[in-house]
Amino acid sequence: MTHQAVTETPWTATDVTGTTITLSAPAQRIICMASPGIDMLLSLGMEPLAILKDGGAETAAHPRFFGDRVEQFPRIGGAFFTPNLDDVRALKPDLIIAWAGDQASVRESLPDIPIFYTYTVRVSDAIRDLQSLGILTEQTSEADAAIARFETRVKDVQAHIAKRIKTAVLLDGSDELELMTEQTLLGNVLSLISEYPFPLPEGGMHFGGCILCSFDDIVQHDPDVLFTITATWVERSTPLNERLANDPQWSELWAIKNHRMHEVPATWASTGGLQGVTVVLDEILPLIYPDMAV
Q1: Residue 167: its pLDDT value, please?
Q2: 267 touches 61 (CB < 8 A)
Q3: 18-72 residue pLDDT tens
Q4: 3-state DSSP call for residue 155?
Q5: Which helix (H) or strand (E) holds 156?
Q6: Does 147 score more than 90 pLDDT?
Q7: Rounded to whole angstroms, how far apart are CA atoms 31 and 37?
């Protein structure tokens, strides 16, 4: 993991859309419309002015985030794709942190309020955005410290791994199997601590960094540990493992035969920042390397 220092003027930074945000003073009143914003503010020792009801409240309530204090944060109404802009205007924020792509219309609808867009599908993205937000809030020392803590944690884990074992993550979000590539935050984290040879194919069709896969693809890799995540947009009464229990190829996978298939929370795939990635790292390590004491 390498990162470059951002060398822009005070309170000026460029977000993932290539837009330069310039503030007249450090941002303090910040509305978060997605989990990465909440995560970054925690890294900077700050709290959000408000959070989107449908955009990270579960992340914010995690005990290693804001816990019970999250109940004190005002909520922005509306949905993730269509937040209530009247709620936003009423709070008079210095800055809004939004998710690039899905919330692209926010900047157009609120031209008088600075919008910082984030988009984190790799650890390097989370580092980049945290550095930029550190500039906009005049919290560069806190940003650098959070990055250093995370990188030290990863290096410590890597130093204790005698042999990387094979892992894979399947997303249960449609009628077909989807595999999380290294171009998803969870896949990228797993590539740091395990054998995870699933790059995003150039020019191929993908869905948020996930690609359609067949049983043959899974059998060929035959992971030592297999993770499944049920997408937040679907309702399943039966877990993937139970639905596939009678398939002979599925039953012959090493991870299935040896009871090393784990259904993990959807929040693991959507945390978006270094704080959340560290939580995932701490929780996923015992599932991959149960004998490791780190």
Answers
A1: 96
A2: no
A3: 999 999 999 999 999 999 999 999 999 999 999 998 777 888 888 888 888 888 9
A4: helix
A5: helix 140-159
A6: yes
A7: 8
Residues with Cβ within 8 Å of 220's Cβ and at least 6 positions away in sequence, in order, are: none
Residue 291 pLDDT > 90: no
pLDDT at 203: 64
Look at phi and psi of residue 43 and say left if phi exceeds 0, alpha if psi is from -120 to 50, else beta: alpha
277: left (phi over 0), alpha (psi -120 to 50) or beta: alpha
Helix (H) or strand (E) holding 192: helix 185-193
CA distance linking residue 242 with residue 219, whole number of Å: 18
Quickly state the pLDDT bin for 95 (edges 50, 70, 90): very high
**Is the per-residue pLDDT at 1 higher than 90?**
no
- Beta-carbon contacts of 256 under 8 Å, excluding residues fewer than 6 positions away, are 226, 241, 250
Q: Which long-range contacts link 265-270 to residues 24+ away (Cβ below 8 Å)?
A: 265/229, 266/229, 266/230, 266/231, 266/232, 267/35, 267/58, 267/59, 267/62, 268/186, 268/229, 269/169, 269/171, 269/180, 269/184, 269/185, 269/186, 269/229, 270/35, 270/59, 270/185, 270/232
User: Global pTM?
Assistant: 0.89
Burial class (CB in 10 A: 0-12, 13-18, 19+), 1: middle
Question: Strands (DSSP E) along the chain, which ranges?
Answer: 12-14, 20-22, 30-32, 50-52, 75-76, 95-99, 115-118, 167-172, 178-180, 210-212, 225-230, 261-263
Q: What is the pLDDT of residue 110?
A: 94
Distance CA 7, CA 45 (A): 22
Say which residue the tokens 């298939």 belong to.
261
Asked whether 171 and 178 are in contact (CB, 8 A), the reply is yes
CA-based nearest residue to 289, from 155, 165, 192, 156: 165
Can you read off the two tokens belonging to residue 123?
């650890």
